[in-house]
């Protein structure tokens, strides 16, 4: 569980559930969907990532990585989206989003988290986002001063100034995504949802990845089971309210 002590103490007096999130953030999507599925009331603190509203002293004082989402539950700060959805399901038990083998379920959450920086972010930035969120020299200096996470610093250094992601970066990201969605395709053979007959945290963790990369041009033609699964997902209110309400079409971002 990723619980941190914020340096921005203003959030420690918050009562109830508060979510700092970005409309176009796939990590934010999974937390919004979980909150909706659980029927929980929450206060929205939306940050426009294209306007770099997350790159401020105040927000880095809440989340030291400057990433969204951040959940505050009665003054306790939680970061990392897959840890957050796991926390929400354990803390607010009904309706449960845990089904099937626990180790398999957690394996899907851990895999989604593990490929975020090596695969999902490079693919999305290289194909779509990098030109849209170029930082000025002043903004870059601000980010570098605030960001202490070396992995994230190295990632964003690849598109600072006039730099672009290399073909090698995109090829590596694509290879990881191919392997993961091949695994998902095989898992969904004969299953409605990832864990079987019941919709779970595993599905919530993975559908935002599908949504954003298909919006970046990734083809799911080799994965008919994944296509069927995503079409089923599109019927759910939590997808409509947690994803489409905030980002109607990632292809238009």
From TrEMBL:
Coiled coil: none annotated. Residues 98-253 form the GST C-terminal domain. Gene3D superfamilies: 1.20.1050.10, Glutaredoxin. Residues 15-96 form the GST N-terminal domain. PANTHER family: GLUTATHIONE S-TRANSFERASE GSTA, GLUTATHIONE S-TRANSFERASE-RELATED. This is Stringent starvation protein A. It comes from Planktotalea frisia.
């Amino acid at each position: 569980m990723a619980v941190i002590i914020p340096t921005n103490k203003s959030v420690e007096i918050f009562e109830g559930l508060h979510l700092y999130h970005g409309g176009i953030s796939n990590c934010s999507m999974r937390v919004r969907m979980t909150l909706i599925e659980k029927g929980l009331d929450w206060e929205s603190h939306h940050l426009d990532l294209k306007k770099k509203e997350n790159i401020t002293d105040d927000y880095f004082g809440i989340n030291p990585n400057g990433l969204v989402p951040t959940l505050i539950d009665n003054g306790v700060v939680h970061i990392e989206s897959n840890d957050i959805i796991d926390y929400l399901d354990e803390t607010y038990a009904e309706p449960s989003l845990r089904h099937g083998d626990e180790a398999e379920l957690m394996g899907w959450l851990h895999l989604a988290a593990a490929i975020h920086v090596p695969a999902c972010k490079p693919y999305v930035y290289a194909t779509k986002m990098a030109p849209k969120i170029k930082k000025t020299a002043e903004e870059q200096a601000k980010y570098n001063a605030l960001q202490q996470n070396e992995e994230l610093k190295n990632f964003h250094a690849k598109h600072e100034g006039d730099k672009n992601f290399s073909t090698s970066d995109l090829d590596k990201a694509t290879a990881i995504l191919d392997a993961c969605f091949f695994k998902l395709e095989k898992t969904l053979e004969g299953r409605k949802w990832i864990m079987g007959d019941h919709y779970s945290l595993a599905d919530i963790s993975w559908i935002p990845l599908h949504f954003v990369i298909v919006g970046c041009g990734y083809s799911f033609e080799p994965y008919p089971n994944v296509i069927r699964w995503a079409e089923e997902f599109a019927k759910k209110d939590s997808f409509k309210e947690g994803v489409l309400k905030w980002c109607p079409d990632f292809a238009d971002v």
